[in-house]
Amino acid sequence: MKSNRILPGNVNIREATEDDRQEAMRVAKSLSPRWFDNIAIGTSIPRDLRIQRTHVAREGGRIVGFVMHTTADDKADIKWIGVEPGSQRKGIGSELYAVVEDELRRAGVREIRVETVSELTEYEPYERTRAFHEKMGFHVEKVKKTISEDTGEEFYMATYLKALPRM
Ligand SMILES: CC(C)(COP(=O)(O)OP(=O)(O)OC[C@H]1O[C@@H](n2cnc3c(N)ncnc32)[C@H](O)[C@@H]1OP(=O)(O)O)[C@@H](O)C(=O)NCCC(=O)NCCS
To answer: Which of 16, 34, 90, 108 could form a disulfide with 54 if both were Cys (CB 3.0 to 4.6 A apart)?
Structure first.
């Protein structure tokens, strides 16, 4: 299903074209290094942009945000979501998420997962990320200790879940 919602403030969400995917990479780079490390920017996001379902937010024709997800059976994973620093806190992330959730709900998906840095790891940038996921209706299912492949540092990752009731 193609989404093409028009939002207030000249913001529009659509499924990414090839050109949009390159622009989404520019947005991802604008979120590095605070949120996305070298491996994310150099390897994971470029690879995932080629293979994962991707939606972008355009503000006045310019790509300012993206969300990527995968689906297996009746479960889906939000793999990456990002909104350019200058366009954050204007409802764009919420709308990107809502478009994906709406599509997944209609397709019969029953649960959405997203992983992010846990509150057990003190790091200010991810406070807003967790606030965002919680606002979208996710709750923490589990937390695991992990080691950054990029820096070798230990940190905690939280898996957030949201159940989607049958329509
Ligand atoms: C997470 C992110 C995508 C949210 O996008 P956004 O467009 O700024 O989010 P919204 O404006 O739709 O915010 C929705 C809600 O999230 C919460 N939130 C978002 N930014 C927040 C902030 N800076 N401080 C506190 N709460 C915040 C609020 O509850 C907000 O609702 P409100 O504005 O009515 O209070 C954005 O902050 C971002 O790109 N972060 C960096 C990348 C990242 O962490 N990605 C996730 C890991 S893959």
So the answer is: 16
CA proximity to 89, closest of 67, 68, 113, 65: 65
Residue 83 CA: which ligand 1 atom is closest? 39
Amino acid at 161: L
Alpha carbons within 13 angstroms on the beta-carbon side of residue 141 total 13
Alpha helices (H) along 31-79 = 38-39, 45-51
Q: For residue 52, give the amino acid letter.
A: Q
Q: What is the pLDDT of residues 74-114, one digit of tens each?
A: 999 999 999 999 999 999 999 999 999 999 999 999 999 99
CATH superfamily of 4-163: Gcn5-related N-acetyltransferase (GNAT) (3.40.630.30)
**Ligand 1 close to Cβ of residue 94 (< 6 A):** yes
Which one of 13, 31, 89 would you pick to mutate in the ligand 1 pocket, going by the greatest count of ligand atoms within 8 A of its CB? Answer: 89
| Residue 74 contacts residue 113 (beta carbons within 8 Å) | no
